[in-house]
Amino acid sequence: MGTRDRIIDAAEQAIHQFGISGATTKRIAQEAGCSEALLYKHFAGKEQLFLAVLLERMPALGPALTRLRRDVGQGDVAANLTAFTTTALEFYARAMAVAGGVLGDPPLLAGFRKMLAEAGIGPHLPIEALADILRAEQAAGRIEAGIDADAAASLLMGACFHRANLACFVDHLGDDHAWAATIVDTLVRR
Asked: What residues have CB less than 8 Å from 149, skipping those under 6 apart?
């Protein structure tokens, strides 16, 4: 494993163990077995490092959206969307520690927002991609034409985020896959 990967792994571990404020570059570098100077050769700042944790260590929404897009018009649309919903829920559950910490640190949040804007990325993009996929399924006649695809995508992703948030406070919410299937059925019922 290379130095960059060790640093990302150490950052993820530090975030989950100590929270964002406790995940100092000194602690992360020590855990990764490198100097802070070497950490900064790989990452310009904590924002970039935390983004790498989100993009490279969490269940990836990108590949899940790619699979969903590839499967437009094929297979069972509800099953395809349920599989995606389960992945989105898993992503939000694992990302909660990073997101909560960033939201609770205004200077870090400002730097994170700036970095996302400069890179042309952000949490709105999976919602937009999902809406495009829902429109394609509508065009294929597999989802009711009257459903607002943008609203349905926002509701589905928002429900995943909300359930992940609830899971931080409640021990057991029930079977995630069954929940995902119910959410999908409610949104795309024909």
From this structure: 131, 132, 134, 135, 138
pLDDT tens column, 92-133: 988 887 888 888 889 888 888 888 888 888 889 999 999 999
* DSSP codes, 39-78: HHHH-SSHHHHHHHHHHHHSPPHHHHHHHHHHTTTSS-HH
The percent of the chain in helix, strand and coil, each rounded to the nearest 5, is 75, 0, 25
Q: Which long-range contacts (CB under 8 A, 24 or more apart) does 73-76 make?
A: 73/136, 73/137, 73/140, 73/142
CA dist 158 and 153 (Å) reads: 8
Smallest CA-to-CA distance from 180 within 92, 90, 79, 85 is with: 85
Model confidence at 59, pLDDT cuts 50, 70, 90, reads low
Query: Which positions ≥6 away from 124 have C-beta within 8 Å?
Result: none
* Residue 190 predicted with pLDDT over 70: no
We find that the CATH architecture of domain 1-57 is Orthogonal Bundle (1.10)
Q: Terminal CA-to-CA distance of the chain, rounded, Å?
A: 49
> Domain 58-190 is of which CATH architecture?
Orthogonal Bundle (1.10)
**Which pLDDT does position 163 carry in this prediction?**
96
Q: What is the DSSP letter of 171?
A: S
